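Incident log, support desk, overnight shift.

02:14 A customer reports that sequence design results differ from what the structure should imply. Their input is reproduced verbatim below. On-call engineer (initials T.W.) acknowledged and began investigating.
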């Protein structure tokens, strides 16, 4: 063992000191005024060190006094003790802290050798380690509150059926760990713990453990309970107090001079009420609880039921006070009526028997009877145009008094009534009447209407399907070309008889080769459109009253006349996708002269008036051949006139449009001799297609 000499006066005694933990063989050398560290010791436990003293003198010495001071420090050292030279002695020093924190003390060893007396002083140090648990709680919306012994955790007023939660904090403010080994709640089931960690759990210094206690009252009384906590620092109790509050709403129904208590689980039966008569009632809501009752939503359902003036919601009912709701019931049909008043989550059912007739309709269909209502109405199966779907409507009085039906009618052309009863019609309670309702579609697609029974309206629906195609159509009596100024006839014929009566239009159009319309091309009845009909089961088109054909003017302008037919049944178009048409050609040709007239203006002047037509709407030259009377001779017996400019002016002018290609030309001839020698004049006209046949006019 090493030794250290103590520097003192020349008369000081030389000693050697050391200490070691009782469980350790290793010693710590220490000098006077040094510190003996006892370490950090848990409160309630003890630390021990062995303090060793060795005489370093060559002569014996005496340990004359051992003194120890300081909270928690004790020693078993005793004096006096004789030590020979280089002899040692030891004793134990104990540290048993009683509280957390730093502890200090002093050890004094006095050594005597002869007249020399030397004191040696040592400092003692140790730390008391202990947990220090502090309890507190926090309720949402509040401040964290300390829980001291005897101070309860008071929950705020909590409504029955609702919950209030508090967070419990176990905070370790000590310098040693704590261990929570148990947490339980004693008392009624209204208190429940949640959020606890798996036990046992250590709570380190300056840390906390937290969990939740929830108060859920089930009845209006103060809840009392205990939370028991067991830790290595001792057991703790938390007293729980939870005041339970609740409004207690009761209900009654006032009508006539009666106030009837209401149990929401049982329907309220109100006396019979006639259809059309209003019964006024008042639903009284009383608060028998210990806090305000609050109503946030109010609604009423059921045919004929409605609220009167309502309070503004949310509405508050103080304890001991009432709130009244006005309810009016006006039945519109006989039978049992049920109204439901919803007050937040509470439903009160009111049952009333309504006195009156009640009509229900059914329709007989292939699949059976179908109910006909004012909302759903009646839907007929799809029917092709020209066909009919028929159903029998049965009107039954399911009410409790006789019914009177003043009239039955329909709207919509496709819906028709048959076999109606006489009106007004009486239907006793439980009785019925019947009539037939037909669906006769007149258009393709959805059709709608209504069945009106007095003031009751039932929607009617049906779909009209397209009829069969009419097949091919041919034009009769007309060829592929016509001569100008003809009046050809045309007829229409179906390939096979058609089951439905058809109507249609025959339309005439013209495309001119000379880019000029011929207004004379039209039907004999006037215009370019003519109506026709084809009776059901027939094939021929009839024009007017009974004609099987129609005439039209062929005109005088070269081009193409087109005939096109359209067909329909009612308002449904049955014209084939490729409409039947017929194209007829008016050919280009040389001019055609119709008349020649000669007017003598004097013995030397004559006017020749020529009429005719030219399908290309052009005439370039006119030639005149004069014939003398017998025995006379003519000089210049022929004459040729260039008329191209004159005819172009005529055909391009607006006045010619009403005449097609027809013209009347006037040529004045001046003679040098006596025109009485002329027997006749023959005229021809020329265009790009050739020369016309001559036409002769006689002067004699």
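02:41 Re-run completed on a clean worker. Output:
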């Amino acid at each position: 063992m090493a030794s250290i000499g103590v520097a003192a006066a020349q008369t000081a005694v030389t000693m050697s000191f050391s200490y070691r933990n009782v469980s350790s063989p290793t010693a710590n050398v220490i000098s006077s005024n040094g510190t003996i560290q006892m370490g950090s010791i848990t409160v309630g436990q003890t630390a021990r060190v062995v303090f060793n003293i060795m005489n370093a003198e060559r002569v014996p010495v005496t340990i004359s006094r051992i003194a120890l001071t300081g909270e928690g420090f004790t020693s078993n050292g005793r004096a006096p003790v004789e030590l020979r030279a280089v002899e040692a002695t030891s004793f134990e020093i104990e540290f048993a802290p009683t509280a957390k924190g730093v502890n200090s003390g002093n050890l004094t060893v006095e050594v005597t050798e002869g007249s020399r007396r030397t004191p040696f002083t040592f400092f003692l140090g140790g730390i008391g380690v202990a947990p220090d648990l502090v309890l507190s709680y926090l309720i949402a919306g509040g401040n964290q509150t300390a829980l001291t012994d005897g101070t309860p955790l008071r929950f705020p007023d909590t409504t029955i059926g609702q919950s209030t939660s508090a967070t419990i904090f176990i905070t370790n403010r000590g310098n040693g760990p704590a261990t929570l080994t148990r947490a339980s709640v004693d008392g009624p089931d209204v208190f429940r713990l949640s959020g606890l960690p798996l036990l046992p759990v250590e709570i380190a210094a300056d840390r906390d453990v937290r969990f939740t206690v929830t108060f859920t009252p089930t009845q209006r009384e103060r809840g009392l309970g205990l939370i028991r906590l067991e830790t290595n620092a001792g057991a703790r109790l938390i007293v729980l107090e939870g005041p339970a509050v609740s409004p207690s709403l009761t209900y009654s129904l006032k009508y006539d001079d009666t106030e009837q208590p209401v149990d929401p689980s049982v329907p309220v039966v109100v006396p019979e009420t006639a259809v059309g008569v209003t019964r006024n009632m008042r639903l009284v809501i009383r608060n028998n609880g210990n806090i305000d009752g609050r109503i946030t939503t109010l609604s009423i359902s059921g045919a004929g039921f409605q609220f009167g003036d309502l309070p503004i919601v949310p509405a508050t009912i103080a304890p001991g006070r009432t709130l009244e709701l006005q309810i009016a019931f006006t039945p519109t049909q006989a039978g049992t009526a049920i109204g439901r008043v919803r007050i937040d989550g509470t439903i009160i059912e009111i049952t009333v028997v309504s006195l009156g007739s009640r009509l229900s309709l059914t329709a007989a269909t292939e699949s059976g009877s179908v109910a006909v209502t004012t909302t759903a109405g009646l839907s007929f199966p799809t029917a092709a145009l020209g066909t009919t779907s028929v159903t029998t409507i049965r009107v039954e009085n399911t009410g409790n008094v006789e019914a009177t039906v003043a009239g039955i009618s329909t709207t919509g052309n496709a819906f028709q009534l048959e076999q109606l009863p006489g009106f007004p019609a009486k239907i006793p309670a439980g009785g019925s009447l019947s009539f037939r309702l037909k669906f006769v579609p007149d258009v393709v697609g959805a059709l709608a209407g209504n069945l009106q029974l007095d003031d009751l309206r039932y929607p009617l629906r049906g779909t009209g399907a397209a009829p069969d195609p009419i097949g091919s159509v041919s034009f009769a009596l007309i060829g592929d070309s016509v001569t100008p100024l003809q009046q050809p006839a045309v007829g229409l014929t179906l390939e096979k008889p058609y089951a439905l009566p058809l109507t249609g239009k025959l339309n005439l159009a013209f495309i001119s080769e000379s880019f000029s319309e011929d207004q004379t091309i039209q039907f004999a009845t006037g215009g370019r459109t003519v109506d026709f009909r084809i009776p059901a089961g027939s094939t021929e088109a009839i024009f007017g009253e009974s004609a099987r054909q129609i005439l039209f003017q062929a005109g005088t302008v070269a081009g193409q006349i087109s005939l096109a037919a359209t067909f329909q049944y009612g308002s449904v178009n049955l014209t084939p996708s490729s409409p039947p048409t017929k194209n007829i050609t008016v050919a280009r040709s040389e001019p055609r002269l119709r008349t020649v007239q000669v007017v003598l203006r004097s013995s030397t002047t004559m006017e020749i008036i020529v009429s005719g037509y030219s399908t290309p709407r052009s005439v370039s030259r006119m030639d005149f051949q004069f014939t003398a009377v017998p025995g006379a001779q003519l000089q210049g017996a022929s004459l040729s006139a260039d008329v191209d400019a004159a005819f172009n002016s005529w055909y391009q002018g607006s006045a010619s449009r009403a005449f097609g290609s027809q013209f009347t030309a006037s040529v004045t001839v001046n003679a040098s001799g006596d025109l009485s020698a002329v027997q006749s004049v023959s005229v021809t006209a020329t265009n790009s297609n050739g020369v016309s046949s001559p036409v002769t006019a006689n002067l004699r």
